[in-house]
Design brief:
The chain has 241 residues and is an alpha+beta fold. The chain has two domains: 98 residues; 104 residues, Beta Barrel (Lipocalin). The chain contains four helices and eight strands. An eight-stranded antiparallel barrel has the order 1-2-3-4-5-6-7-8. Helix 1 crosses helix 2. The protein starts with 5 loop residues before the first helix and ends with a strand.
Length: 241
């Protein structure tokens, strides 16, 4: 049996990947492929985060309604011609408990929003590391856009602000609802959470910016009777600029 030469031993020691190939070990996947796997995992976790957000938002909303209910009972008691001290003390205690629960629910909601933002930042970072070409600064989504939303054929105005890869903004559906956006922009791709002013986070919006135009899809987080749960959207800069 032939022994490896000293030169070959030195070469394998200096370059472990060559040693792995020489020994028949599978090569590690390319970094871009590993990033794609991690990206898909983060996207699945984002769906779970959105579900948790909706549950947390519902509890925060219910806690606020409970505070309003206690205050209403307190108003009614104080509007009475005669109010017992014991009743007032009891209602005051109920109000303190309700407000404490509301503050706790609000803190949990803020933590969940922070978690969503961090998840979106990781997704944006991974999208930037998948080998996609970097878009020039002229393709920034910052600014005001006129939007068409299908299949409802609704029109809207979106106003985006960009800070690094993080997007914040507002929207107004013509003749309808309004609210805000939070999300990320990386490698020409937008990933947005739409937050309705009344109902909280209600949908996820994906889009690609190219040649001064955004095209993409949207998906609702919850089923609504008689309402579509997904569709397409397009946007052009307001004034055609």
């Amino acid at each position: 049996m032939r022994r490896p030469t000293a030169a070959l031993v030195l070469l394998l020691a200096l370059f472990p990947p060559l040693a792995a190939v020489a020994q028949g070990e599978p090569a590690a996947p390319p970094a871009s492929a590993a990033n794609q796997v991690e990206l898909r995992l983060e996207e699945r976790l984002l769906s779970l985060d959105l579900l948790t957000y909706n549950q947390t938002r519902d509890r925060e909303r219910q806690a606020g309604l409970h505070v309003a209910d206690v205050l209403n009972r307190l108003d009614q008691a104080l509007a009475s011609d005669s109010v017992a001290l014991g009743t007032l003390e009891s209602l005051h205690d109920d109000l303190a408990v309700a407000r404490g629960a509301a503050h706790a629910a609000e803190d949990k909601l803020n933590l969940q929003i922070d978690k969503l933002q961090e998840r979106l930042r990781r997704i944006a970072l991974l999208e930037g590391d998948t080998g996609a070409p970097v878009r020039p600064a002229a393709d920034s989504p910052a600014g005001r856009w006129r939007v068409t939303i299908l299949p409802m054929s609704a029109t809207a105005t979106f106003d985006f602000r960009l800070d690094g890869t993080v997007i914040n903004g507002t929207y107004k559906i013509d003749g309808g609802t309004s609210g805000s956006f939070r999300g990320t922009f990386a490698a020409g791709n937008l990933r947005l959470l739409r937050i309705d002013a009344q109902g909280g986070t209600d949908s996820v919006w994906l889009g690609t910016l190219a040649n001064g135009r955004i095209t993409g899809t949207w998906t609702a987080n919850e089923l609504a009777a008689g309402q579509p749960t997904q569709g397409n959207w397009t946007a052009v800069r307001e004034g055609g600029q």
